Amino acid sequence: MRSLALLVLAAAVGEAAALGAAPARAPAAASLRPAREDAEEAVAVAVAVALPRSADPAAVEAAGDEAHGDASSHHQHGGGYKIVQWEWSYVQTPYIIAIWILVASVAKILFHFSQRVTTVVPESCLLILLGLVLGGVVLIASKKQLYQLDPGLFFLFLLPTIVGDAGYFMPSRLFFDNLGAILMYAVVGTLWNAFCTGFCLYGMKLAGVIGELFLLFGALISAVDPVAVLAVFEEVHVNETLFIIVFGESLLNDAVTVVLYKVYISFVEVGPGNVQTADYFKGVASFLIVSIGGTMVGLIFAVILAFITRFTKRVRIIEPLFVFLLVYLAYLTAELFSLSAILSMTFCGIGTKKYVEANISQKSRTTVKYTMKTLASIAETIIFIFLGISAVDKSKWAWDTGLISCTLIFIFVFRALGVVGQTWVLNWFRLVPLEKIDQVVMSYGGLRGAVAFALVVLLDGKQVKAKDYFVATTIVVVFFTVMFQGLTIKPLVKWLKVPRSTNRKPTLNEEIHERAFDHILAAVEDIAGLNGYHHWRDKWEQFDKNYLSKLLMRKSVYHKGELWEVYQKINIRDAISVIDQGGNVLTSARLSLPSMASRTSFSDVTNVTSYLRENGSGVCLDLQVIDPVSGGKLEEETETHHLLTGNLYKPRRRYHAHYSRHFMTMGDKERQDREVFQRNMRSRLESFKSTRYKGKTRHKKERSQKKARLALVPIDPVVAPLESEEEKSEDEPEKDDDVGITFFDVYLACCCLTSIAVPGTLEVCQSPAVIPPSPTCAEKHLPWKGGGGTLPVCVSMETTKIIPIDLQQAWNQSISSLESLASPPAPAEPQHPRVRTLVQLGLHLFLHLHYLCVSTTRMISSKATYGIGHYTPVMSHEKHRFSLNTHFVVKLRDTGRYHTLKQHCLRICWLNRKAEKTHLP
Amino acid sequence: MIMFFSSPSDVKNNGHRRFFPYCHIILIPRGVSGHESGGITTFFARRFHHVTDHSCAIIMGSGDSTLSKIPNVEELMEETGFSPAHVVRLYERFQALDKSKKGQLSRKDFESIKELATNPIRDRIIGAFFAQGQEMVDFHTFVRILAHFRPVDKNRPKKANMQEPVNSRTSKLRFAFQLYDQDNDGKISRNELLQVLRTMLEMQVTDEQLESIADRTIQEADLDGDNAISFDEFRKSLEKVNIDHKMSIRFLR
């Protein structure tokens, strides 16, 4: 509470500034009383506005006291029940905090209004400047700085949010690949900086202040600050290795800083004369305990967290909470035992992420991600604003130009020297040596920040007489590094041409091949008899797979396999991007998938195969498998049923209100998936439409020719009425609209595709060549054949998805059953093969049509369905439930279906072969 | 450049790590320098790199026994870029693996490496050591194969007449590619990819899942639409990956 109370309502401050300070207080309080009396008369608004405007906090308190007096007096003259009460003291703390966060967030928005400013000036600089302005306002208002960055607030609330975010989202592979370098810089580098800076300052100022204090100062000023590094480097986008080394160092040097700081403080306390040699060893031991202990605490919490999330299946809604709580607890526990809290939290995050991410649901993952990022961003903003505010405080300042300039020079020089020296040593052992430009960026990126400031504020002014000097120097150093270096590092990186990072998700190819590389390298190390890095990594992965993952992951997840996860993620990403482009999918026939960056050269839209393939990656989404909900299949079945019976001509989307606070409706996911699928199907149809547009006119011609022929041929009386009916139904769509024809085209194309994809039907489709040529038959076949010819031979992968190979069996069965229906009444045996072909083709068509109709329910408007004439009743009267892939086959065997199939097939027979009137039911 | 080791104590010889065993005077050729080529030598080699312009020549100390046993060792080092220390170390390893002491390794010798037992693509990697139709591997081939994984050295001068070094990006990729391409037709077909995936993922995923992964992978990389990944396509799909980094190991001295 103490620390929170330091925050102030900025608006109040601003107003107070206008009113002036102490002399204004009395009138302010005076003006308050009439206002309160107004309130008695229920003029509530006046109070609410007048009070915060008329007083700074001190005045508010004074007024509050008076108000209490007032209240008691009012009691005396029977004021009784007050309708509106002023409860400032009650809401003060959270109110102020909320207002501060609001100010910080609004400031961020304002900064980003101007693109030009934020690309040049880092946000942290702007925030510090804003803090300076605010601090100035406060100072002018109350003549004394009331607020500054409070170490308690900083270490317990602000820092953990940032470190937690950093640890949890640390790219662990990269981190461990460079762990050696990171540890080297964090431990050796920080020690080097601390001692060199301390001793040199001591040397520079032999007179005056005692040595330990300079060592102490050296210790706290030498540590690179994670907050500052993160803030600046995130905008610079240097390559990952460089970033992870600087950032990892800034996190891991915490242990060194903590120990050095504590050791020196205790030295100061006992007095420099009383330090014995044993104490130095204690210092070393303390370092080991603080660092290793911190790491262990973090890892223990990581295991606990991962283990807990294994069992949250039924309480998905609080999954994110566990993550935050346990990571934060890791921090607090380390603080509790005075271990390195940052180390603890970092390792908790790194260690737990893999298992937690696997265990929790996709939504929880998103929640964790965004909440962490939001908190960290806000904490960062507040830290920098408060750094600015804290700087405007004359009472704590003691300016010493010599000290400040020396410190600045020393930390810069020793940082550079340290980096160069350590890199030289490291490059002996590193596979990829750190180049000179890397070293420059690393030395230049040694930013100091809020941690140093908070530590220096924590110093006890009685024991450390030079505290004010140190505070001033620290502030200047922090400002210099964050503002000057932060401002110039971007141009520097550009000028040096440091390899930048590409913010790019790995493709599936890269994932697979890199996995293979890992295995290869491990094997080669084993063969060459080297127990190198890859050897141990391989060992660890074995251990992880055999024991840790088994313990910490859900069974269902454990058996899924990482690569499969990656595959799903990539697919979902593609699907989302396809949907995001929503309109584009329909209007322009161009589809770009981000994960297929390597194939951007494929602009040839007219090429059906390429387009199909590109387009089809979404169809490849095996959505049913992504989230195997128990009973998912059943649910899906009913869903499909709904789609078929009710949803066909209705708006598809239905909103269900969530009444339960504890559960989310699981159907959401399913519905979403279906939408993805349907969109894909639609775009596919569109693609067919656009690519086969040219062929359409020819089809028309052929069909009209055929009609003419039908009309000319002398017709058997029994068939005649049927034919005219047939003609009518075929006529209308042509006059009417393109849609029907297009659809016809579509399923023709599909038909051809399938005939290639499914080997079993191949011969059937090509059989017209074998069949004794009958003019009508050939005519009928031509468009289909033509369709097959114009299509590129290469079949997309998805076709096999559309019609599962195992459908063949069903085909054969249903075909044979159809044959048994068709052949006995047909005495004309020589015509039989043709009949069979046609029957099969009809069946073939029907399957496709059916499939397409089901999967693209929305696309098929009533018109389009009408366009394919007599197939429509088959669809709309269908009362069976079936799912897209699996149940199809089963349902085909149903007797109910045979009826319609038979009808359909026989109709095709009528069209082609006038002679087979006996087949009419 | 000539280096003198004043006393034998400079020479570490604990069986595992050795700086130039038994060497007293070494002429460091320009080609061998690189940070992996060994302790102090590297240091000097780096310092005085510009001074040395000798042809590759190494003068062995009188006590050297290992290097002199290997025939054509200079050529081997020239070709692979390994330092003498590396070669000696690899030779010791080779002999340790060579149970039959014939100077050649058979498949069995490789398979008896117990660390390798858990590696899912073990067979393929072992297979990569054997040229087509060959049953045995001699030391030179052994070193040549391992040289694929030597990190790329930037300051090694390029000789005009030299063919592409064995540890270049392309040959590293070629090595990986050939692990997939078992029938050597220059293409990774769907089936070949499936096999690798199956071994790498073991029994964790169903066949259907594997197939969709394989399909997707091929779709992603396949540029010419032949439903297979050629080497060029393979290289293109990995062009954003730092192969020099990911396909190199640090050879100990």
TrEMBL record, chain A:
Residue spans making up a coiled coil are none
One GO BP on record is: sodium ion import across plasma membrane
Give start-end of the signal peptide.
Answer: 1-18
Please indicate if the UniProt record lists Transport as a keyword.
yes
The entry's cellular-component GO terms read: plasma membrane; recycling endosome membrane
- Enumerate the transmembrane spans: 95-113, 125-141, 153-170, 182-204, 210-233, 284-309, 321-350, 370-389, 401-421, 441-459, 471-493
Major localization listed first in the record, in broad terms: membrane
Tell me where in this chain the Cation/H+ exchanger transmembrane domain is found: 101-495
> According to its UniProt record, what is one Pfam family this protein matches?
Na_H_Exchanger
Give UniProt keywords alphabetically.
Answer: Antiport, Cell membrane, Endosome, Ion transport, Membrane, Signal, Sodium, Sodium transport, Transmembrane, Transmembrane helix, Transport
Q: Name one GO molecular function term.
A: sodium:proton antiporter activity
Membrane-related topology note:
Multi-pass membrane protein
Provide the protein's localization: Cell membrane; Recycling endosome membrane
Its family remark reads:
Belongs to the monovalent cation:proton antiporter 1 (CPA1) transporter (TC 2.A.36) family.
Sorted alphabetically, which PANTHER family does this protein's record hold?
SODIUM/HYDROGEN EXCHANGER (PTHR10110), SODIUM_HYDROGEN EXCHANGER 5 (PTHR10110:SF56)
| Stated name of the protein | Sodium/hydrogen exchanger
UniProtKB/TrEMBL annotation, chain B:
Q: Which PROSITE patterns match?
A: EF_HAND_1, EF_HAND_2
- Molecular function terms from GO: calcium ion binding
- Subcellular location field: Cell membrane; Cytoplasm; Nucleus
Output the Gene Ontology cellular-component terms. cytoplasm; nucleus; plasma membrane
Q: Does the keyword Nucleus apply?
A: yes
List GO BP terms, alphabetically.
protein transport
Q: List the Gene3D superfamilies hit by this protein, alphabetically.
A: EF-hand
Keyword presence, Membrane? yes
Query: For the EF-hand domain, which residue ranges apply?
Result: 168-203, 209-244
Record keywords: Calcium, Cell membrane, Cytoplasm, Lipoprotein, Membrane, Metal-binding, Myristate, Nucleus, Phosphoprotein, Protein transport, Repeat, Transport
What's the domain of life for this entry? Eukaryota
The UniProt similarity line reads: Belongs to the calcineurin regulatory subunit family. CHP subfamily.
Name under which the protein is recorded: Calcineurin-like EF-hand protein 2
Q: Which organism is it from?
A: Scleropages formosus
Taxonomic lineage is: Eukaryota, Metazoa, Chordata, Craniata, Vertebrata
